[in-house]
Write a structure and sequence with these properties.
The chain has eleven helices and twelve strands. It has helices at 14-23, 30-33, 38-43, 114-117, 119-129, 142-151, 171-189, 222-225, 239-244, 266-273, 285-299; strands at residues 4-9, 25-28, 50-55, 71-86, 99-113, 136-138, 194-196, 203-205, 209-213, 231-235, 248-250, 256-258.
């Protein structure tokens, strides 16, 4: 069972907040972790644990439980992908924040009422606000699950809708990833009932189309994951998996080509042969960097 930790980010720290989310890093001043076991709590976080960041709330100098009905301007749920380490390479403009963890952003919501997170999580965030943003640990992820339930299911993505097949996500993390995919899928489809596959060109009912990351979600930055230029419609009749496994790639001229890996089996080579030379829909300069990443890291 993953643990969850809660960190409050005050309004003046908005710029640092954005930098940390974009870089997939969270850091603390050593002075913030020098007191009352705060460093030990951060050190105890393991890969797969959750870090919940609450931004811009009311005055924290209130009695315990005083935030139960409060509203936070923003709540970001992240997952720990790199455990505690120290570093001084420049990330934030005002300080080193040398005690760090690596994070993956799973969900972001605006104007979150206390009821959505629950009293325990809101109290942890209030305590963090009074401890210079130190992490306040909870032994389970019950409040994170509560938040996922409050957001509700996302009907915009099928049951197998997680695009990055190589991701190692817990069931709870998958809930948030599916919500992200649902938002991207709705943007991609635009309400259409049928859409052409980018690789083979067949026009298919949307239930046969996956909103596929070109550069894998696990390798993409937060900004890249949400860019529509990094999303292509790939059909479930084979194109999605052939691209995912690097059997085919898209050239810098915008056409489908076979990788050398596709020669391993006769029937696989035949399936790939049908796609070779096809002009990729919506290929352009904004997508080329993502296709180039796929060529270099997956297909070759």
């Amino acid at each position: 069972m993953p643990k969850s930790a809660y960190v409050y980010v005050p309004t003046p720290s908005r710029g640092n907040f954005e930098i940390g989310l974009d870089r997939g890093l969270w850091g603390w001043r050593s002075s913030a972790l020098d007191r009352a076991g705060a460093r030990q709590e951060v050190r105890s976080l393991e890969e797969g644990d959750f870090l919940v960041l609450g931004h811009s709330g009311p005055n924290s100098r209130v009695a315990p439980g005083g935030w139960s009905d409060a509203t936070l301007q923003r709540v970001v749920v992240t997952r720990v992908i790199q455990t505690y380490f120290t570093g001084t390479d420049p990330v934030w403009p005002d300080d080193d924040y040398p005690e760090r963890i690596g994070i993956d952003v799973l969900e972001e919501e605006q104007e979150v009422r206390g009821a959505a997170l629950g009293a325990d999580a809101m109290e942890a965030l209030r305590m963090s606000a009074n401890k210079q943003g130190a992490a306040v640990l909870r032994p389970d992820a019950a409040s994170v699950a509560r938040f996922a339930d409050a957001l509700g299911p996302d009907s915009g993505v099928p049951d197998d809708g997680i695009v990055d097949h190589k991701g190692d996500h817990s069931a709870l993390a998958q809930v948030f990833v599916r919500r992200e995919q649902g938002k991207l899928r709705r943007k991609l489809l635009g309400g259409a009932r049928e859409i052409p596959c980018a690789l083979c060109g067949r026009v298919l009912p949307v239930r046969f189309i996956r909103a596929a990351h070109i550069k894998r979600r696990s390798a993409a930055s937060r900004k890249e994951r949400l860019m529509m230029a990094n999303i292509m419609p790939a059909c479930l009749l084979g194109c999605d998996e052939l691209f995912e496994q690097g059997m085919v790639f898209v050239t810098d001229g915008g056409t489908v080509a076979a990788s050398s890996r596709a020669k391993d089996a006769r029937d696989l080579a035949a399936a790939v042969k049908l796609l070779e030379g096809h002009r990729v829909a919506d290929y352009g300069p904004d997508r080329e960097s993502f296709y180039a990443w796929h060529r270099s890291n997956i297909a070759e």
